[in-house]
Amino acid sequence: MLVLSRQRDQSIMIGDNVVITIVDIRGDKVRLGIQAPHEIPVHRQEVYEAIQREQRAADQPQADEPQGLAHGPVKSP
Where do the domains of the chain lie? Predict the structure, then answer.
């Protein structure tokens, strides 16, 4: 892990198109501003983990779902 020291209004570049700026510091809390292209999702870690759990749950067949129909009926040509 890279650890950097920054002051308010200073930034960190990630690659060529992600900028993280220290917006405010209050006690033990730091407010960050993040500029990233729209196609790069940016989430707090706890939100990201919740999204991952939901996606894994959605990918698993439900217990009351008949086998082979987890993704819908197979259409014949």
Answer: 11-59
Phi, psi angles (nearest 5°) of residue 62? -75, 150
* Pairing verdict, β 29-35 and 18-26: antiparallel
CA distance 53 to 47: 10
Given the structure tokens 């999702």, which residue do they identify?
A: 41
| Predicted model pTM | 0.69
Cβ 11 vs Cβ 5: under 8 Å: no
DSSP 8-state assignment for residue 37 = -
Q: Are 11 and 20 in contact (CB under 8 A)?
A: yes
Residue pLDDT, tens place only, 55-73: 999 988 766 666 655 555 5
- Least Cα distance to 57 among 49, 47, 68 occurs for 49
In what helix (H) or strand (E) does residue 50 lie, and over which residues does it extend? Answer: helix 45-59
